[in-house]
Each structure stands twice: as C-alpha cells, then as structure tokens.
Amino acid sequence: MQQLTGKKIILGVSGSIAAYKAVLLTRLLVQAGAEVQVLLTPAATHFVTPLTFSTLSKRPVFTEVTSDEGWNNHVELGLWADALVVAPATANTLAKLANGICDNIIAAVYLSARCPVFVAPAMDVDMWHHPSTQANVQRLLAYGNHLIPVGEGELASGLHGAGRLAEPEHITTALAAYFDRQSDLKGQKILITAGPTYEAIDPVRFLGNRSSGKMGVALAEAICARGGEVVLVLGPSALRPQMPGLEVVRVESAQEMYTAALAAFPQCHTAILAAAVADYRPATAAAEKIKKKGDTLTLELVKNPDIAAALGQQKQPHQRLVGFALETHEGEAHAREKLRRKHLDFIVLNTLQDSGAGFAVDTNKVTIFGADNKVHYFELKSKQAVAQDIINTTLVSAT
Ligand code: PMT
Description:
Blueprint: E1 8-13, H1 19-31, E2 35-40, H2 50-57, E3 66-67, E4 70-71, H3 74-80, E5 83-89, H4 91-99, H5 105-112, E6 117-121, H6 125-129, H7 131-142, E7 146-147, E8 151-154, E9 160-164, H8 168-182, E10 189-194, E11 199-200, E12 206-207, H9 214-225, E13 229-234, E14 246-250, H10 254-264, E15 270-273, E16 280-282, E17 301-303, H11 307-314, E18 320-327, H12 331-341, E19 346-351, E20 363-364, E21 367-370, E22 375-377, E23 381-382, H13 383-396
The site of ligand PMT has 27 residues, from α9, α11 and β18.
C-alpha cells in the first residue's frame, strides 16, 4: 500500500481484549512503509505488552504522559503525526475523547493532534448500543473525526452482535483510502483570488468591501491538503495562511490583483476567483489627505479591469475557470449571466438572502452552476466543508 509509505501514524491502544489485533495492525502498517508510534493506556498493558509493540514498530512505546525518561511530549507527538488511529477504542476512551477528559497519553495526544483522527471502537454489544456510547460517537464525528465501523459477530463475552474491532486489514485499507483521497490533486496547480480589494482615495482612506478572505483561504488550504499546489492572490485580509504547497501573493488594489492573477494563470490548470474585487476605483488617488470642506464631496470613479473576464479570454483548452457570484437578489439569473459573459466553466453562487452565507462568517451556502447546465445544490456548512464541495464538483468530478 504505497499510500502509507512514509506516513507518520500514531496508534493509540486502549484496554480491551481486542488489543491483540493492534499487534497485527502495527505489523501491517510497518510493512506498508509507515512510521508507527504506539501509545498504550495503562489498562491496555494488561492485555498486551509495550515490548511487543516496540519490537514491531522499532520505536519506544509510551504508556504515560510522564515516564522515568521524562516527559513524553504529547504536543510534539500530536504535531508529528499524519494520522492518529485509536484502535481499539473502548467505551471509556470514546467517552474521554468525546468530552475532553485528558488523563492518559492517548487523550493528551488526541487533544493536541492537528492530524486526522480515526477511532476504531471495540466493546461488548450492549455497551456499543448504549445511548451514551452512541452519543459519544456522534460527538466525535461532529468534531470531524473518522469512525472505522465496528464489525458484527462473536464477541469475547460469548454474546453475538456489533462491537468487534474492525479487522487490522480493514483499518489499514481505510487509512490508505484516506491518504489516497488526500493526494488526489497532486500535480494540479491552482490560482485562487481571495479577500477584498482596497481602492485608495487618499493616503488615509480607501473604498473596500466586507470580504474577510475566509472562503478563498479555505479553498487554498483544502487544495494543498489534497496534494495540489496553490498560488493565492490575497487582498488585504487579517488571515496569514501558511502550508506546504501554498504560495501567497499579497496585493491591495484590484489592479494589483489583476496583474498578479494574469501573471500566474498561464502556469495553472485552474483558477478559482473567490475575491470580492471592486468594480470601480477613484479616478485619481489624492497625494495628500483630503481635507473636510463643503457639505458634499464627489468622487469620480473609473472601471477596474475584470480579472475573471480577462482570464476567460486567455483560457486555453486544458484550463478551467471557476468564478463566484455574490448576489442580493435574483441570484440564479445573475450567476448564469456572469458564467456566460466571463467564459467561466463553473460559477459558485452565494447570496446574502441566506443567513450564515457570504461575507466574513465562518459558514456558507452555495449553489454551483456548470457551463454544461448542471446545477449542484448544497446546504449551509462551514467554509472548510464548502471548499471540499467546490473542489469535488469543479476539480475532481469534472476531470
Ligand atoms: O472572503 P469571505 O468573507 O469569506 O467572503 C466570501 C465571498 C462572499 C467574498 C465569496 O464567497 C464570493 O462570493 N466572492 C465573489 C464576490 C464578488 O465580488 O462577486 P461578483 O459577483 O461581484 O463577481 C463575479 C466574479 O467575478 C467573482 O468570481 C469575482 O472574483 C470576479 N471579479 C469581479 C470583478 C472584477 N473586477 N474582477 C473579478 O475577477
């Protein structure tokens, strides 16, 4: 399984008779080329020994946050890992992880981990079906963790039913499939515009808008996390994104954004234009602060270049162009008109009529219109989840 080659995996083993299967799981992960760091809860050591795992993983095994050798830095471990797998996860461990209880090495690493977390529960059938266990599983899923479902069959108690730890081969395949999905944009270079633009009136004032850059940054981070390369042309935003594969070009005005986007586009396979670009700018920016004089002040505005339309003109057959439309009324008609006029392949409509959608908030609700007349509707979601929907619809399904 080449998807696991070089991956850093923390395997957290909690106290269940199914812990014996974690021994085979360690072996399979190591055979697949992963670096495996095993953590055992004190209860797990009653079923399996640290020596078994350290021999297979060729790394010391941690059973406590502190040990005779000192502090087993759970924060460092949480940052080191590409994935944390808790297998078996007992009812007790699920409850701890779901509720932020942090009294053992697995729980401490879980709270510090920035990587994806997989839980593979194992327990007796009635414990598994108990509403508190099910509520804890739902809570863990709501936090964005992944569940490796339990199997059904004969349990250690002699009862039959759901609650068996998934087979080690199944857990290994689930992890490989996850990393496979994560690198599905490898080899793709994508230009993203994001954030507002500021159009100078004088050295002190500007015409701007309410875009925070969150939608475009969520897209950029999601694409990089899936193995793509991104050139992010970002207007004035408080966000400071940083991750492997991400090149950030900071700009202020629409004209600067236009220059940066046109320079980057020929090297890119796709452009996704999430920026809220000012359509007009002051005809001249005063060299000095404009002083208060009469009761009114008139600014002459001139049209800014339309980045989307310019890229639409330049687009080569192998390139794809995805625009956004932020509307307050008649969203579909306006979005379809922009799709045609700017020669886009897709347009992502978000409308301020939907509460929780659009500027500055952490959520969005979008509808994606394709040049092929297909329409994709989505519910209100976090901007990170919306980014995945946009990627899946415009970059992955469309290839
Ligand atoms: O940044 P957030 O706070 O997270 O908010 C996200 C967002 C609401 C800004 C984003 O989801 C969004 O809708 N961005 C586009 C906003 C917009 O200005 O749309 P528009 O309908 O005016 O423009 C249509 C398309 O043409 C857009 O892709 C826009 O980037 C592009 N455009 C517009 C004008 C211009 N001069 N150049 C352009 O490229």
